C-alpha cells in the first residue's frame, strides 16, 4: 500500500505514466538530460529518494547512471523498440539486469530485472567447480608420490595456492624436532624444523598424535606463539589448525594463515579445507608407511644382497648378479668371498644356485651363506664343508636343494693357485692368456637332497692375466637371441670368454652379463650370477711382452 | 692457452694408449698426472675421460677394436675414473640438492652417466648413481624413497627410446622433472622433446650448467605417454614389436631362399646376419614408435658404414628391406619408413660399390 501511495505521490501530475504501475519489475524513465521523469512503485522501493525531477546520477548507482549517459550520447533510435545496451550491476546487495527501451524521442525506459538468485547460483557453481578441480589436482599430485617430504611439499603448495596466504604442514615426529614445510602464496615450499612444544598451539599436539580426534581449530592470532608465524609474513588476520587424518598412524597437521585485510575463513571454506586435509593426510600416512616398509625390507635384504667384490691378498675377485624378476634385487643365486683368516691363507669364494627363485629362494641363500661363513675354519677341506652344509640343509624345514662351486684362491709370487670343488654345479671355466678356455674337472653331487654329497676337488694355477669363471645356469640356459628360442649355451659363453683373455675381472663379469642380458632381451629368464677369480696382470712385464706365458712365472 | 690444449691432447693420447693395451695402472697414472699438471678434476672428466671414451666407440665402429676390446677399454676407463672419484670424495662437500643419475633399462653404456654423476658431485650436488641397466621399478622405488629434485637419464642406443619414454613418464608422474642425455635422444635432443623430457643436454658439462641455472619446472600432472605420441593409435608399433621374432625368422628364411650361398654360412656368420636383421627390425619398430622415418634411415646409413669397415658390401642390406616391405605391406607407416630407407641406400650405393671395387683391386 505504501508503495502505491508513493507511486501516486511521485506521479500525481503524470497520468501518462499510469500504465507502468502494473509492471512487476522496477521501472525508471529518464529524459535526455538525465533527469528522472518517472519511477514505478518497485522502482521507488529499490532506489530510496528517487522522485520526478531528481538527477539520475544522484539517485541510482553509477553503473546505471553512466549507462544512461552513454545511451543518450549515441542514440537516436526509433521509439518503442528495445535496443541493445543491456547492463548489469548491483543495487543494495541485489543484482539486476537493466534493459533500456526508447519511449519517445525525449525519454528512455529502464526495465530492471533481478537476477540475484541466478548470479548466486552461478557463483556457487563456479566455486564448486574450482574446488572440484582443485581436489582432483590435489589427488593427482598426492597420489603420485610415496615420498613423505614431497607429499608435504605438495600439500603446502596447494594449500597456499587455494586456501591461504601461507600454509604450514607439520609432520609427526618421534623426537622433539618437528619437520615443517612452509609455503607462501606464489612461492616454493621449503623445509625446516621446529624445536618447540606443540602444546602451545591449541589442537596442534592432538593433530600430531592423531588422537583424540579434533575438529579444525581457530587460533586467536594474538595468542599464537611467535614461532608459528613465518618471518616477514606481516600481521596475521586468521589462523586455522586442521588435523591431517592418517590411516591408523598420525598424519600431521595443516596450519593455514591469512593476513589482516583478507577475509577470514568461511564455514564452507573450512569444510573444504577438511576435505583437502583428508586427502593430504591419507597420502602422507601412506608415504610414511611406505618409507617404514622400505627401510624394513632394506635392512632384511642387506644380508641377502650379493656383496661388492674387490681384490683380496693379490687375487682379483669380481661378481655380478641379475635377479629373474627385474623388480627384485635378490633371488636364488648367490656368491660370496671371504679372505683367509691369516696372511698367506687362501681366500674362500663360493657361487651357487638354490632351486626356485624369488624371496623364498633368497632366504635359503642367506642361510647357506651364513652356514658356509661359520664353516670357514675348515675351508682347507671342501668336502668336509660340503658334508656339514649337506646335513644342515637336510635337517632344515626347507625342501629345497642347492648346487654350488667352491674356490680357495691364494697368491704365490705372481701366480694364483686355486682349489676348485663343484657340487652338482656347472664346471668352472679357466681362461688362459692365449684365449684357450679349459673346463675344471671337479664333479660332485648337489647338496641338500641326499644323505651323502660326494665331490672331488681339482687344483688349477692361474698365470697373470688368466682367470677362472664361475656362473649359474641362468646364464647358459637363458633363451633368446635374434630368433628368440635359442639357448645362450656354453659354447657361446666359451667363445665370448676366449675374447676376454687378459681383461680385468670386473670387465669380464660385465661383458658376460651384458651378452647374457642382450641375449634374453625382454624375455623371461632365470636368476643369473657370474663370478671371476683372476690373477692380476703385471703391467711392467706385459709392456715387454704381453703374450708369452712362463716369462713371469718366476 | 695453447699449452693447456697441448697438455690435454698429450694426456688424451696417453690415456688412449693405456686403454688400448688394457693397462689400468697406466690409465690411472695418466689421470693423476693430469691433475698434478694443474688440470682441474672436471676437466679431467670432460676433457680427458669423455673424449677418449668417444674414441673407443669410434674405433669399434671402424672395426679397429672388437666388442670385447671395447668392453675392456671401457672397463679400464671406468676403473681409472673410480680411482679419481675416490681421491676427490673427501674434498667436495655436498651443498646443493639431490640428483639421481641412471641409465635407461637395457642400456649398458654406463660411463657417460657415470661421468655426469662425478661432475655433479664435484659441483656440490648430492648424487645417487644407480648405474647402467637400471630396471625402471628400481628407479621409481628409489625416487619415492629419496625424493630427488631431478632425475638424469642417459641412453646411447635409440632402440631404448620406447623404454626411455615409459621411464620418463613414470618419473614425472611422481612430480620429479627428468633431464635426458645421450646419443639415443638424437641430434639437438629431438627425441627428448618428443618423449616429453623436461630438459635435454648434449653432454655432462651442459647438463651441469643447466642444473645450475635453477630448478626445472615441475612436470604437468597426469600426463599419459600416449599424449606425446598420438600416432601410436594405429597399433603399427605394437604389431611390429610383438611379432619381431617371427619377422626376423621370416627375413632369415627368405634371404636363404634368395641367396643359396647363405646356406653354407658358418654358424658365426649366420648368427651375425641374424643379429643384423634383428637390429633392423628393432630400429624399424623404434622409428614407428617415434614416428620419425629418419631414425631408421640414419641407422641404416650408419650400419652401412660399419659393414663397409668390416668388408661386407653395404647394399646387402637392401634385400632384407625388400622382404620386410613385403611382410609389412598392410602397414602404411612402416612401408613409408622402409621405402625411404631403401631409396636412400640405393642412392648411396654407387659410392659403396666404388669403395668395394677399389678394395678388390687393391
From TrEMBL, chain B:
<dbReference type="InterPro" id="IPR050554">
    <property type="entry name" value="Met_Synthase/Corrinoid"/>
</dbReference>
<feature type="domain" description="B12-binding">
    <location>
        <begin position="96"/>
        <end position="222"/>
    </location>
</feature>
<dbReference type="GO" id="GO:0008705">
    <property type="term" value="F:methionine synthase activity"/>
</dbReference>
<keyword id="KW-0170">Cobalt</keyword>
<dbReference type="Pfam" id="PF02607">
    <property type="entry name" value="B12-binding_2"/>
</dbReference>
<protein>
    <submittedName>
        <fullName>Cobalamin B12-binding domain-containing protein</fullName>
    </submittedName>
</protein>
<dbReference type="GO" id="GO:0046653">
    <property type="term" value="P:tetrahydrofolate metabolic process"/>
</dbReference>
<dbReference type="InterPro" id="IPR009050">
    <property type="entry name" value="Globin-like_sf"/>
</dbReference>
<dbReference type="InterPro" id="IPR036724">
    <property type="entry name" value="Cobalamin-bd_sf"/>
</dbReference>
<keyword id="KW-0479">Metal-binding</keyword>
<dbReference type="InterPro" id="IPR003759">
    <property type="entry name" value="Cbl-bd_cap"/>
</dbReference>
<dbReference type="GO" id="GO:0031419">
    <property type="term" value="F:cobalamin binding"/>
</dbReference>
<dbReference type="GO" id="GO:0046872">
    <property type="term" value="F:metal ion binding"/>
</dbReference>
<dbReference type="InterPro" id="IPR036594">
    <property type="entry name" value="Meth_synthase_dom"/>
</dbReference>
<dbReference type="Pfam" id="PF02310">
    <property type="entry name" value="B12-binding"/>
</dbReference>
<dbReference type="GO" id="GO:0050667">
    <property type="term" value="P:homocysteine metabolic process"/>
</dbReference>
<dbReference type="InterPro" id="IPR006158">
    <property type="entry name" value="Cobalamin-bd"/>
</dbReference>
<dbReference type="GO" id="GO:0005829">
    <property type="term" value="C:cytosol"/>
</dbReference>
